[in-house]
Write a structure and sequence with these properties.
- This protein has one domain: Alpha/Beta hydrolase fold, catalytic domain (Rossmann fold, 3-Layer(aba) Sandwich).
- Helix content is 38%, strand content 15%.
- The chain contains ten helices and eight strands.
- An eight-stranded mixed β-sheet has the order 1-2-4-3-5-6-7-8, with helices on both faces.
- Helix 3 links the parallel strand 3 and strand 4.
- The N terminus is likely disordered.
């Protein structure tokens, strides 16, 4: 089994366990049920990923202060990897469940190779970002905090982007929706979401089919389908056609619900984690098409 296959299987297992837990765990008290739900959802792997070979050369590690204290911490651990190109666009990288930044090096490197300076964070409770068990609310607030830092790093609003993978896609959609509503400022120039879902209940049911009203039962919603039509910036949605855990039909549904301008890129044969690698040229082309003025150094 390859490392990538192992990662994908563990992610599917987490969503499946979440669905099973609610099938058998309804007698739990509400607070106990909600806490267990978050444990199963985030499924945090402590320490560094076994395949991690070190922070890439040129990455600056930083601590971003957090003021709300929801998860019992006062900073986010982040990597800042500026592009070697002058005036490169800057992207906020929001990862999914289970793995911290040490497992994200490949995708972060690919985004930088596509032409971005990258600010990547660990949510509180992940990696070197101290804190308790995360929640939907705390990861949304962490994204807000990181966005404010990105704005300082990239003063040109035309060159600020948001990227989210898997559950990070839902975090990214939430941030972009609030930027559009004026609840957070300044704005972004574009949003990229990859291998993500419509809402958490749908994702859990895809892992293990059940007749239970999972979306109603879950305390964590991550409801992107009801937010995405409020986003007022260019949108690129990417999904592998062979994703066995978060099916590409979710990205198709998000695309249908989203407002223009929007683009859907389906990577033939891509699974949950390899679309950016498998379809690197298609990805670069889609970025140029979706975002006016974007110029990727990847060969056309």
């Amino acid at each position: 089994m390859t490392v990538r296959t192992f990662i994908a299987r563990r992610r599917g297992l987490s969503l499946g366990l979440l669905a099973v837990f609610f099938a058998v765990g309804l007698p739990y008290g509400c607070s106990r049920l909600a806490y267990k739900e978050r444990e199963l959802l985030f499924n945090i792997q402590p320490g560094t990923a076994s395949w991690f070979s070190g922070v890439p050369a040129g990455v600056r590690e930083m601590r971003i202060p957090v003021s709300d204290g929801l998860a019992g911490s006062d900073y986010l651990h982040a990597w800042w990897w500026p592009s070697s190109r002058a005036n490169a666009p800057t992207i906020l990288y929001l990862h999914g469940t289970r793995w911290n930044l040490t497992a994200q090096v490949g995708r972060i490197t690919q985004l930088r190779d596509l032409g971005f300076s990258v600010l990547a964070i660990d949510y509180r409770g992940f990696g070197d970002s101290p804190g308790g068990l995360p929640s939907e609310r705390s990861v949304y607030q962490d994204a807000d905090t990181a966005w404010k830092r990105l704005v300082q790093l990239q003063p040109d609003a035309r060159k600020r982007y948001i990227y989210g993978h898997s559950l990070g896609g839902a975090v990214a959609v939430d941030l972009a929706e609030r930027l559009a509503s004026g609840k957070e400022a300044p704005k972004a120039a574009g949003l990229i979401i990859e291998s993500t879902f419509t809402d958490l209940g749908d994702a859990a049911r895809a892992a293990i089919p059940t007749s239970l009203p999972v979306s109603w039962i879950l305390s964590e919603k991550f409801n992107s389908i009801d937010k995405i039509n409020q986003i007022d910036i260019p949108l690129l949605i990417v999904h592998g056609t062979d994703d066995p855990y978060v099916p590409s039909r979710f990205s198709k549904a998000l695309y249908e619900a989203a407002a223009q301008p929007k683009q859907l890129l389906l990577i033939k044969g891509g699974n949950h984690i390899n679309s950016m690698t498998l379809g690197s040229r298609e990805y670069a082309k889609a970025l140029r098409q979706a975002f006016e003025g974007f110029a990727s150094p990847v060969a056309r």
